[in-house]
Amino acid sequence: MMRWLTLLGLLSAPAAGQNTRGLSREQNHAYRAMQQGQILSLPEIRARIHVPNAEYIGAEMLGPTVYRLKYMRGANVIWIDVDAATGRIVARFGM
Hints:
Blueprint: H1 2-12, H2 25-35, H3 42-48, E1 55-61, E2 66-73, E3 76-83, E4 89-93
Antiparallel strand pairs: 1-2, 2-3, 3-4
């Protein structure tokens, strides 16, 4: 009986290194860096970036320190890459 409980416990435990929150490695790294004050949060970044006549549609992490913000203006998608530590725009596409 004890062996079955041990086996059940091993099977239900997450694999070593597996993220228990369901976040990507980049998201985990960004979360830790934000908590330590090394990078700005996504809401802080969004508050700094303004794209006239465009609607914000989402964001993603490009590596541990770059946010890619996505906007729609008409039928065009606009991508803005932002340094998460400084809030400065490092690249623009689709403008």
